Inverse folding.
């Protein structure tokens, strides 16, 4: 009976306990501000609208 208890017991790594760590630094090559993203989206919408209008 002692062997059954040992087989069913699952152990977690002592340092993690199911938590995920996210690091602040990431190797991003392109960094955009929210203002730049809004301008980019508006530009794409304008180009697509113009193409639909003239096609």
């Amino acid at each position: 009976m002692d062997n059954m208890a040992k087989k069913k017991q699952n152990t977690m790594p002592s340092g993690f306990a199911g938590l995920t760590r996210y690091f602040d630094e990431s190797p991003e090559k392109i960094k955009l501000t929210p203002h730049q993203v809004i301008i980019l989206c508006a530009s794409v919408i304008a180009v697509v609208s113009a193409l639909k209008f003239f096609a």
Observations:
- The longest helix spans residues 34-54.
- Residues 31-55 form one domain.
- The chain has a mean pLDDT of 77.
